[in-house]
Design brief:
single chain, about 400 residues, alpha/beta, Archaeosine Trna-guanine Transglycosylase, Chain: A, domain 4, Transcription Regulator spoIIAA, Rossmann fold, 3 domains, 11 helices, about 30% helix, globular
Length: about 400
């Protein structure tokens, strides 16, 4: 099959030759290759301004990122064989890194499959397909996953906000097989029930695995507060590491029900309690009640989803970090995380510093954490490195 060409303007190939995979709509020579002549998801032959082939990409004429590179071997379209090879490569990496089959199997651009996320929960795979190009290839993706892993079930969690901008409908469905009940994982010697159909994202957040392990070293004998706890990823693991008491805060009643179940499943239900409500108001209430903690974990959702929201989002991070720091017993610890790409590690550090000075307290940063190796960073794509975590000791000023 001969592909239509998508030609770039002069000089717009430099970033791609440097390793980047994205083409922006203002980089296309629309006089030679009008974007509107393509349908969302079409594969194209990407050319430089002189007509020299660069790569195979898929295109969406209706989005700012109008094309994403699939392969720099441009003599044939990307097909099931390429998808199979990329999945096998991703699997080999994860199997070398992890002893158990619980990890992010596919991390989009970093694994050569832009627009695709796949999390593995034992024999269950949960996919997020976020682009029209990957949606067009979905049958081949599923076939390759079945051939490679023979999963008992494949779930499509195609309900991300990104799909709307790509012109795709939102849906959650079981695409293959039958779900075991319950779906279980083990992380840091702690077992969890995962809500793959109605939880957040794909049901779990593997990216903080190593940060939660680092947190466990601080949890022994501690009174722990887990803010924005979801289903207990931090709090229950603090309890299994020997925390004397754990309070998990979240706005979702259903998430807290699972947090309780997960605590009981691991034999630590007696030392765990939950509280439903807004995180900031709940922390204010705890402060007024005189509650203090030896370890506070603050892992909120992304406050900054777009560049234009940076100022307001950083103010939100400052407010919630200051509230969290008020609840730390002198000499205790604060674990502060941000999954917002536009909140840099430097910004988070400055937020922690400013919060401590406003409260007339001192902070020592004793560790830094990032996303786990099943979320590999593409060195040319800054957006693939999004997670940052600071481990701090908070003392009197």
């Amino acid at each position: 099959m001969e592909l239509s060409a998508l030609r770039l303007k002069p000089g717009c190939d430099r970033r791609l030759r440097g390793g980047h995979l994205w083409v922006y709509s203002n980089e296309v020579d629309i006089a030679h290759s009008p974007l509107k002549s393509f349908s969302p998801g079409d594969q194209v032959l990407l050319e430089d301004s002189r007509g020299k082939p660069l790569a195979i990409a898929y295109v969406n004429p209706n989005t700012l990122i109008c094309a994403r590179i699939l392969s720099r071997t441009y003599r044939q379209p990307a097909d099931r064989r390429l998808i199979q090879a990329r999945i096998e490569s991703a699997l080999q990496l994860r199997q070398r890194l992890f002893q158990q089959p619980f990890y992010r199997l596919i991390y989009g651009d970093s694994d050569g499959l832009p627009g695709l996320v796949a999390d593995r929960y034992g024999s269950v795979l949960v996919l997020q397909v976020n682009t029209a190009g990957m949606e067009r290839m979905l049958d081949d993706v599923i076939a390759a996953l079945e051939a490679t892993l023979k999963p008992s079930a494949i779930v499509l969690r195609n309900d991300s906000a990104t799909r709307e901008s790509e012109g795709l409908e939102s849906q959650v469905r079981l695409a293959v097989g039958k779900l075991p009940q319950p779906v279980l994982i083990t992380e840091n010697d702690t077992e969890f029930v995962i809500p793959v159909l109605d939880g957040q994202k794909t049901g779990w957040f593997y990216d903080h695995r190593l940060n939660r392990r680092a947190m466990q070293r601080l949890a022994g004998g501690a009174r722990v507060l887990d803010v924005c706890s979801y289903i207990g990823g931090w709090g229950v693991q603090a309890a299994t590491a020997g925390a004397s008491e754990v309070l998990m805060l979240d706005s979702s009643a259903s998430a807290l029900e699972l947090a309780v179940e997960n605590a009981q499943r691991n034999g630590v239900g007696a030392c765990c309690e939950v509280r439903e409500g807004n995180a900031q108001q709940s922390m204010r209430d705890l402060y007024q009640q005189g509650r203090r903690f030896d370890l506070v974990v603050l892992d909120p959702p992304a406050f900054i989803k777009r560049r234009k929201d940076v100022r307001q989002g950083l103010q939100g991070y400052h407010r919630i970090n200051e509230l969290a720091m008020r609840l730390v017993e002198p000499g205790g610890y604060l674990v502060s995380a941000s999954c917002s790409l536009h909140c840099t590690e430097e910004s988070l550090m400055d937020i922690v510093r400013a919060s401590s000075r406003q409260l007339q307290r001192d902070v020592r940063v004793i560790g830094r954490g990032y996303q786990g190796p099943d979320h590999p960073v593409h060195p040319a794509i800054a957006e693939t490195a999004y997670l940052k975590t600071l481990f701090c000791q908070v003392t009197t000023g």
